[in-house]
Amino acid sequence: MKKIAVITSGGDCPGMNAAIRAVVRVALTCGVEVWGIRNGYAGMIDDDMAKLDSRSVGDIIQKGGTFLGTARSEEFKTLKGQQKAADNLQAHGIEGLVVIGGDGSLTGAKQLSELGIKIVGLPGTIDNDIWGTDYTIGFDTAVNTALDAINKLRDTASAHGRVMLVEVMGRACGWIALTAGLAGGAEIILVPEQPFSSDDVCKKLVESRSKGKKYSIIVVAEGASSAIDLGKYISAKTGLETRVSVIGHIQRGGAPTVADRLLASRLAERAVRALVDGRSDIMIGYQSNQCVEVPIADAVGKKKDIDPELYRLADVLSQ
Amino acid sequence: MKKIAVITSGGDCPGMNAAIRAVVRVALTCGVEVWGIRNGYAGMIDDDMAKLDSRSVGDIIQKGGTFLGTARSEEFKTLKGQQKAADNLQAHGIEGLVVIGGDGSLTGAKQLSELGIKIVGLPGTIDNDIWGTDYTIGFDTAVNTALDAINKLRDTASAHGRVMLVEVMGRACGWIALTAGLAGGAEIILVPEQPFSSDDVCKKLVESRSKGKKYSIIVVAEGASSAIDLGKYISAKTGLETRVSVIGHIQRGGAPTVADRLLASRLAERAVRALVDGRSDIMIGYQSNQCVEVPIADAVGKKKDIDPELYRLADVLSQ
Amino acid sequence: MKKIAVITSGGDCPGMNAAIRAVVRVALTCGVEVWGIRNGYAGMIDDDMAKLDSRSVGDIIQKGGTFLGTARSEEFKTLKGQQKAADNLQAHGIEGLVVIGGDGSLTGAKQLSELGIKIVGLPGTIDNDIWGTDYTIGFDTAVNTALDAINKLRDTASAHGRVMLVEVMGRACGWIALTAGLAGGAEIILVPEQPFSSDDVCKKLVESRSKGKKYSIIVVAEGASSAIDLGKYISAKTGLETRVSVIGHIQRGGAPTVADRLLASRLAERAVRALVDGRSDIMIGYQSNQCVEVPIADAVGKKKDIDPELYRLADVLSQ
Amino acid sequence: MKKIAVITSGGDCPGMNAAIRAVVRVALTCGVEVWGIRNGYAGMIDDDMAKLDSRSVGDIIQKGGTFLGTARSEEFKTLKGQQKAADNLQAHGIEGLVVIGGDGSLTGAKQLSELGIKIVGLPGTIDNDIWGTDYTIGFDTAVNTALDAINKLRDTASAHGRVMLVEVMGRACGWIALTAGLAGGAEIILVPEQPFSSDDVCKKLVESRSKGKKYSIIVVAEGASSAIDLGKYISAKTGLETRVSVIGHIQRGGAPTVADRLLASRLAERAVRALVDGRSDIMIGYQSNQCVEVPIADAVGKKKDIDPELYRLADVLSQ
């Protein structure tokens, strides 16, 4: 393998730049040329790509987002679009591709691999919902951002004796809510994976007041409920004062944490080494503190559940 | 004056603790005893107050919220409630009172003063909407928190080429939106004081794309529009992708900034010195880098507008 | 087991409060009474301890330091001191003890266990140097604090083209330097475990300038070198401008990160369950994302080395 | 005036980028072309400059450092160097120059003005030591960074009952130490402007212990003392445990605060308007919340003292 490319696709996450940097520098160490594709699969179709050298990835490790840009592409969902993208890579002599992104991006990678491109995927999404890896790139930063919000809400919740609701990301998946909620000492955590009744939430809040809790923090995954609607319901039902924050895309930004930079760097190194050694159609995951290679078909086909032990622990600790 | 009390009332804000600490330590230096009243005027009515010494305000300067607690009180809105509160103070021999809070709290202070309590108010609100002072305690922290959110949104906005809307506090007043928006390089800032049309917003966004801006940040004061509704409108009208964050009470929390701690400390010192010197029925403001005493009736009766120069500058700089 | 105690000892670290909170709340769920010992083993000797309930550990999960206090005790190093401490526990009917601390504290725990106290240790130190656990409580927060410093130095290093040295903690152990250095994109990382020559450092700096690097960041563990002395040497030898920061105990403070709060909570839960189930003389470690029980004699007797793979990766990525 | 240039010179500070951005965008609004000079006066001598447009200053407002770079230049200290620099500007048709920097940079500006270049200076230095302005660009960010360090030291100081020393910047000037110390609740603040004896420091520490203070924070300006030496002295003399942090150039980095971005934007706007209106040989200062124009000869010739009132207040509040 003499020439590879790197692409970030789908929703961005903190740590993508650290991954790109590691792909480039490790590849150069292995004597492999690296190209960067701009704006995701759309850029691959538009032949928007350029060679990267070591200096071109300097001073980016600390930045959120992705300096290559990212986008969603309708055209790439068609076989014609995919073929055009693959043709562009081949025209440049690019044999291998490192794809950094979430579920949709890795699915796209799998489709490219069927057109003859050697593919290695990296799990890059704040949602931590990719099968085959304990952690995804961006998750640690996102939950720390959510935690920072909870820390601040705690100050004012405590001063007023209020119920504070914070809505975090997670349409189909409660990892951010569960993790930030446990770390933030939330009294109630609502995730898409666990059905709940708003009345039970109200009951629990009323009970905890009678036990001496002076304020409450509720963390809600966007896929579990609208925090705004739930806040109104609680207020109407219990008479408790509620306030709501919807932190939204703030969770996607910011300088990546140590853990995300290390994870991105390690996975990226392994991705390049796999390509160089002739292995592809895989995603590099991180399991039990080791880089592992999992079939990309499994990574995009299987579902990763939240940890039930963590959910149980959160409940015990909020007593 | 031998004995004074200090109270935080209404919405909390970062810097209230720094103000309480300064009231206590300056008063002790002047040979005056200080009591702390818990949970705002409600606590004054319930006689929930205790003597404070220098150590009891140790290790609080860095904390958001108010360790005395705060609350809103319906009972205090009645003359009977006010009389009960005043009676409690007098029963303890408390002659003077430092009230830290926003418009409503200072109005309450004015009412107490009519019942014979010597009152000095401090402007404590994140909204910066109190007449007679250039800055209110908590404003600098709140706008820096909002700015931090904007910084993070910028990463992901840049990666995706999106329109990011962030809704900040300010029901009747656009100081937070204007200041955070200008500092954050927002393209559009919407404040309650300036009428706007959603169509003009859409037009401006479309134009800026044609001039080469790849993404846009819109800061919306809650009193100007719902960012969620506006985001939907823009998306439907222009086809641009929008994302919304409603940062809410996060703005009220967090460790106070240097500026808020200094402001709180300076105003608090002057408040105590005014009481000791026999002046009351005033609010201590900060004008042109000096503590000033303004009649409390003016502070609660007059309206402070946003700075039109700042609004104009924000527009020039977003080109 | 009806009654246990919890103690923090030795150097404090972020996450100790989260661990105490979890010990208390899990124990109460198991029907076990919990006492808190103040100021480490010194407080145990002085019988400075009190019963804790669920509310007494409210609002502490977000705080650095330890609300129980910690101290070093000369008296506890004697058998007489240890016996007095054990007697005090027994006088209160305390059968089990959870000790949160580093190497010295766990060694103390082992000694107490020889006097009949059932002991479970938790690895609490920013240094990450305890055998038997992949991570220690406080490490993730400390390296993120060091990383934040490096992020800031990068701004000014880049503006000036300077060599910035930052000295981080780690007398005998380079985990903080290695991890923060890798994450921070440091060009050179100096750890106690790896001998180096100052002249080689100078040579590498000069070479990297000739390759186009405009500035350099060097992370130095305090046990590897004095950053101040090294900075002077580099400057004299190469003529490059150097600047030095010694971040010191700042690394010990601050609100704990998500990872540290989770680690503390999980380990603490397991510690209580082990005591309740009759297991002791162990430390709870975290290996491959699982809580594990290791003999406390191993935890204090064996040495944990830095990860050589990480060191190699740091070198590749700094090219 | 048809064409101006902007330069950052001397030590960098947070907010320089915000100032450059405002100079460019305001000038373009006025129909004036703007050039950016790279690496300070050295770049002016080397003719290292290029035209800037509105997009070229996009996405920089949030960044520390200066994207133009900065450097110190020995050659510029000679008349020959200055003449060469002036000739380069004139060769490009550049008539006016906005210089952003500290005392040395503004002195350089004054020298250029004597060679026929129309000059307006902006006070850009974290030290806040420029006569004619209440605040310099970068000061607010630097003191908030120092405060963050103090906040973290407080956690661990409190846990251990130690004396923590933190050395901040300020060779000839105590503004950072005084302001951060007051805001951080430091017990002792040492500044170059106020002579002190190490024995008095020791005495005060011992007394405060006897009054019940459990730990102490000392903020030392680098120009007042070496914190490392002082820490050793205190420890030897009093037996109190001391720990030292030297935060150094960390204070120069980081995203600028709201206040610094606003200050930079306002001053920059006024600088451009002054040039356009034909006024030069001035520095734009900020006094009593207003932009003012002061003769550049005064700005570099007069000394700005620390505020004695603030120093006195710090002492009262540390009781």
Automatic annotation (TrEMBL), chains A, B, C, D:
Regulation affecting activity: Allosterically activated by ADP and other diphosphonucleosides, and allosterically inhibited by phosphoenolpyruvate.
A GO term, aspect molecular function: 6-phosphofructokinase activity
Role summary: Catalyzes the phosphorylation of D-fructose 6-phosphate to fructose 1,6-bisphosphate by ATP, the first committing step of glycolysis.
Similarity comment: family membership: Belongs to the phosphofructokinase type A (PFKA) family. ATP-dependent PFK group I subfamily. Prokaryotic clade 'B1' sub-subfamily.
UniProt organism field: Sporomusa silvacetica DSM 10669
Gene: pfkA
UniProt-annotated location(s): Cytoplasm
Cofactor(s) of this protein: Mg(2+)
Record text on subunit structure and interactions: Homotetramer.
Domain Phosphofructokinase residues, every copy: 3-275
EC number: 2.7.1.11
Keywords for this protein: Allosteric enzyme, ATP-binding, Cytoplasm, Glycolysis, Kinase, Magnesium, Metal-binding, Nucleotide-binding, Transferase
Classification via InterPro entries: ATP_PFK, ATP_PFK_prok-type, PFKA_ATP_prok, Phosphofructokinase_CS, Phosphofructokinase_dom, PKF_sf
Entry keyword ATP-binding: yes
Record pathway: Carbohydrate degradation; glycolysis; D-glyceraldehyde 3-phosphate and glycerone phosphate from D-glucose: step 3/4
Residues annotated to bind ADP: 21-25, 154, 185-187, 211, 213-215
Active-site residues, as the UniProt record annotates them: 127 (proton acceptor)
Binding-site positions, ATP: 11, 72-73, 102-105
Residues the entry annotates as binding Mg(2+): 103
Gene3D superfamilies in the cross-refs: 3.40.50.450, Phosphofructokinase domain
Reactions catalysed according to its record: beta-D-fructose 6-phosphate + ATP = beta-D-fructose 1,6-bisphosphate + ADP + H(+)
The protein's name in its UniProt record: ATP-dependent 6-phosphofructokinase
Positions of substrate binding: 125-127, 162, 169-171, 222, 243, 249-252
